[in-house]
Protein 1
Amino acid sequence: MRVKMTTLGEVVARTGGTLQTGPFGSQLHASDYSALGTPLVMPVNLGDNEIVEEGISRVGAEHVRRLRRHALRTGDIIFSRRGDVGRRSIVRHQQEGWLCGTGCLAARFGRRLNDVNPAYIALYIGTAVAQGWLQDNAVGGTMPNLNTSILAALPIALPERSHQDRAVSYLEDAD
């Protein structure tokens, strides 16, 4: 099996995607939250490759329209930007259209996925090697923080697509 060492930024760019931060506090305030509406994924909602919906904040349609560039798509990977920087999850089909919240970053993969399976990337980022790298490279004395430059530099071991697909299938079956 041939494995290429690359970075998350290179993988995302090769697919035609982007890395972006969630809305800053000046764009979205706690007073904008509502009991009903579109879920807003915050760091507290991120587990180990899952988005925890219990207790999730929501926003109304006017905020969804205003923040549409932060709408999540199936296959995006959303990260905690501060605190526990190892938290991340792939966005699943039923979460499409939810918003990337304040305190998060998103890796959005483009349409050129011939040699990249986003689910493999999300699983790889959960490995001890990738988690250690994120911890070691986060900035900030009091609380670790990530930014798009740090995330872009995250090393990724990328085997051929068929091996990525098999690994994802095996791990999903085991889960």
Protein 2
Amino acid sequence: MYKIKKTANKENWDNFLNEVQPQSFLQDFEWGEIEKSLGHEILRLEIYNSQTNADLMGVCQIIGYKAKRGNFLLIPHGPVLSTQIIIENQFASIIIEIIKFLKLEDYHKRYAFIRLNSSTLFNDDDIAALKKIEFRPAPIYSVSENMWVKNLQKSEEELLNEMTSTNKKLVNDAMKKPYLEIECSTALSKIDEFWKIYEDLAKRKEFAPYSYNLIKKEFEIFGNEKKALLYFGKVEGKIVSCALIVYSHNIAFYHHSGSLPIKEPINHKLQWQIILDAKNAGCKYYNFWGITLSVNKKHPWWGLTQFKKGFGGELLKFIPAMDYAFSKKYWFNFAIEKIRRKIKKL
């Protein structure tokens, strides 16, 4: 029913994504270039109707990672499929064809497993279908499974009023303080200022940060396509907070950020400015990126989740990450990740 082809055609890829409007930028051609620049293997697949051999039904960008615990393939927020495939409930059928293709190309000999971190909306039928073809729940996720998204297709007053009373008050208070300034930049040289704040946050909160090289390449490559901005929050001229925003598919994505301990509501003013700028740029949504669904206040992401949700919006919940083992080597990785999850209490 479906035919899989390798591709390197950016124009076709971009045209398909622009038409389908996915909920993430991790299947964007640019994201593959970022991963490639870091030494990872990139495989881009086009999915066609085998009967017509002309209708592009989907795309799937796969990243190959080499790790001591076992080499693996990752499908980050993919595959991205046409509305027709989704309506016809053919998601699992597409995944079967992708697995077949990978085995024909001998990827199963170089990688221990493939992790599917899909952007398909959560539903029991697709999860059950994946389990039938020998996928199993992954010990941990590789990219966000739960996102918080704010609809920007409203008036400025409506956007403000849908915030919690606390957030609305803090935004209004911040707007009255001229010494709280927001700077927006496209300059690559500014990435070092971003990194100082981001790295400081990682040390204080004790989480493993993304690498400097990845963040720099992300800003550079998306920036070259006019799809990225850096925002800085300043208190009396001193930078105390920052955010890297990626623009794609009429959505602004709040992907990386950092802040110093500060009592002033600079982070609320920063977010409000990003929201207004995104709306004025024609974006339909502001994606705050990942949140936790845990109700445990001790969860490492609980505070950040409450901050994001305070601006109003709704949950976007994807199918949880699932793994397909190519070899027995997978189980070593499985054990390591189970331990890691227990230690981090995720």
